Amino acid sequence: MLIEKEFICEARKYLDEKHEEVIEWMKEIVEIESPTDNREAVNEVGTWVKEKIKSLGGEIEVVPSNHPDRGDHIVARFKGASSDEKPILLIAHLDTVWPIGTLEKMPFKIEGDKIYGPGVFDMKGAVIFALYALKLIQDLGLRLNRSINILFNSDEEMNSQTSREIIDIEASKAEAVLVLEGGIGEAVITERKGILYFKVTATGKASHAGMDHQSGVNAIEEISRQVIDIQKKTNYDVGTTVSCGIIHGGTRTNVVPEKAVVEVDARVKTLDEADRLINEMKQLEPNLDGAKLDIYTLVKRPPLERNSGVKRIYEIAKSCAEKQGYELKEASTGAISDGNLTASKGIPTLDGLGPIGAGAHASHEHIVKSKINERLILISQLLLSI
């Protein structure tokens, strides 16, 4: 095996020679549009990915989605030299938020040092990174110690509803999980907030707003008072944010409303804080005589906490970056990924290892062309080092 400095030198030379091919792979996959709710479109991307896996000698497992509108999930397996070591799991999703036809107004293009296109940053560029990191290692004649599994799931943009089971199964086998979502700046992500969802329904008593106003219990008034109390649960000091995002109620202006609802998004840094906030929400009490409250709670994503396992993998990545000649910083975010799911199961997880860029879900979505080699080498180093 090449020693570290020789590997980096050879990898840079190799990627310089293969630069146009990497870009062409990105162009091909971006131009296969794949909104989450279009099964055929997502599976078309899956077919493209399977062809690349075959060309790299990987084994392919197709995990059918249990939803008629979701694409299938793909697991690629590349055997390492040791059968005793747990594998490394990489995760990248095939779906995007962009509807069919987006390419007409947001074509794949290169302008200066930026590569644009729907899903290029979130996260089709990462799909290419996962595949090309393996190709880099193979073409330089190196052999993996640990086996490498890559999970390409089809519905991350819709909360990984049908892929959670396969994520849990594959993560439970792994020594570590590398999530190839785009980084924040040039940092990797060692902490993500979890998302909680609350739906608070106030039930009052309907009455005629003019003839019998005094007999009514106004559910909109009740829910309005609850909104004020709920918003106060934001605590920036501990990183908890609570946002009442949707509110509706009533039927007609001349009817004292019987029902009103508020839907709430909350973000928390730790499981302990999630438990505390859930308990507080469950203890909400009506303000108006005769009003009733129903509180529905859903943990959409648990937090990715910066625990000892996360720190261990980050330190390995930081050391790899230093060997390339730069400092790899770490970042935290309120946005979520599949890393929230794997980290909450106690599997050491490092996130944000994908392309450096910006504009996820926005018309200026792009990745930085000059940073492609740096990240590809880092991923390859991790696959050889963990």
How is this fold's topology laid out?
Elements: H1 4-17, H2 19-30, H3 39-55, E1 59-63, E2 73-78, E3 88-93, E4 109-111, E5 114-116, H4 120-139, E6 148-153, H5 164-172, E7 176-179, E8 188-192, E9 194-203, E10 207-208, H6 219-231, E11 241-249, E12 255-256, E13 259-268, H7 271-282, E14 292-301, H8 308-324, E15 330-333, H9 339-344, E16 349-350, E17 357-358, E18 366-368, H10 372-385
Parallel strand pairs: 3-6, 3-7, 7-16, 8-15
Antiparallel strand pairs: 1-2, 2-6, 4-5, 5-18, 9-13, 9-14, 10-12, 11-13, 17-18
Helix pairs in contact: 2-4, 4-10, 8-10
User: Over all CA atoms, what is the radius of gyration?
Assistant: 24 Å
Number of helices: 10
* Class derived from helix and strand content: alpha+beta
Morphology: elongated
Average pLDDT, all residues: 97
Q: What ranges have pLDDT less than 50 throughout 5 or more consecutive residues?
A: none
Strand order of the largest sheet: 1-2-6-3-7-16
Q: Helix content range of the residues, please?
A: 25-40%
Order of helices and strands: HHHEEEEEHEHEEEEHEEEHEHEHEEEH
Q: Report the portion of residues in β strands.
A: 15-25%
Largest β sheet strand count, sense and barrel closure = 6 strands, mixed
Distance between the termini: 15 Å
Number of strands: 18
